[in-house]
Structures are given as C-alpha cells and as structure tokens.
Amino acid sequence: MKTRASWREKLEKEQEPKIVDIPPKMVKRLGTGKMLIPRPLDVDTLIRKVEKGGLVTQNQIRARLAKDFGVDVTCPITTGIFIRIAAEAAEEDLRSGSKEITPYWRVIKSDGGLNPKFPGGVEAQAVHLREEGHIILKSEGKKPPRVKDFEKYLQKL
C-alpha cells in the first residue's frame, strides 16, 4: 500500500512553474492574457518574507508572482492550495523540532479575514496573530474573524 506524501514532500515536489493562457472559464473573472501556475516553493518563499507583525493577502502573493514571471495573473486556485500546503508543511516542521517555520498565519484574506483551512482553523491563526500584537474581530454572520485595521500592517512583497 502506498503511503501518502507528507506536506513537506508536497511543498518540495519537483516541478516547474507553468505559464498558460487564461482558461475560458476564468476569463470573466481574470480577463485575458497569460496566467502563471506557480510552484508550491514559490509561494512558500514569499510567505517567508513577511516579517513578524506584518500581514500579506493571497492577492498580494498572486500579484507579486505574476510580476516576477511577467504574466497578467497568477492562478488563484493553485495559489490557495499552495498556501495551505506551506501552512501544513510548517506545522509538520514544528512537530519535528524545527524552530524556523514558514509564518503562514500572516497570510489573510483580502478583507482581513482569517483562513479556516489553515491547521487548527481560524482559532489557531488568531492565537498566532494575537501573539504578534494584532486585534482579532469576531465573526460576522458567515464571515470568519478578521484582523482589525489589517491594512496598516500589510507588507509590500
């Protein structure tokens, strides 16, 4: 029976970034042009640049990758998946004794919302962010908790 790949293995999987035409199903949302499908390590590298107390949105990560690769956009679907892989790999690293892990909890949604798909959900992300001095606002309806005045803390990538 084949064992499942670890999150670290998924993060470090040998693959090349791909540049493709924006698929027809995504044109309405993203426009036309070229789209980057990044590597998980490209996403992880950018997250590692976010300093303590700083924040970054998935959209900022996508914009920076698009700029670096000279394309119009970066795929929002794979970027979201790769942010999750970076988060899970960081938690694996922590459990195996690593002290320096990817600070995935500093990645928030474009409205300042926390990510329920991160390890431990929004509760664990909120703990990390509070430790770095952020105030977390309660959930509103179906919206997850969010960082108060998050715009002040957004870091340029």
Write the layout of secondary structure elements.
Layout: H1 7-11, E1 18-21, H2 24-30, E2 34-37, H3 40-48, E3 56-57, H4 58-69, E4 73-74, H5 76-95, E5 107-108, H6 121-131, E6 136-137, E7 146-147
Parallel strand pairs: 2-4, 3-5
Antiparallel strand pairs: 1-2, 6-7
Helix pairs in contact: 3-5, 4-5
Structural overview:
The protein is α/β, with parallel strands linked by helices and 157 residues long. 41% of the residues lie in helices and 11% in strands. The protein has a 3-stranded mixed sheet. The chain has a two-stranded parallel ribbon with strand order 3-5. Strand 6 and strand 7 form a beta hairpin. Helix 3 (40-48) packs across helix 5 and helix 4 (58-69) packs across helix 5 (76-95). It is globular. The N and C termini lie far apart (42 Å). The mean pLDDT is 95.
What would a concise description of this structure say?
It contains 6 helices and 7 strands. It has 157 residues and is α/β, with parallel strands linked by helices. Helix 3 (40-48) crosses helix 5 (76-95).
Key traits:
157 residues; alpha/beta; 3-stranded mixed sheet; two-stranded parallel ribbon; 6 helices
* Helical residues, percent: 40-55%
Taken from the alpha-carbon principal axes, the silhouette is: globular
Sequence of strands across the biggest β-sheet? 1-2-4
Distance between the termini: 42 Å
Biggest β-sheet description: 3 strands, mixed
Secondary-structure-derived class: alpha/beta
Q: How much strand?
A: 5-15%
Q: What does the average pLDDT come to? A: 95
Quaternary form: single chain
The low-confidence runs, each spanning 5 or more residues with pLDDT under 50, are: none
The sequence of SSEs as H and E is HEHEHEHEHEHEE
Q: Quick one: how many beta strands?
A: 7
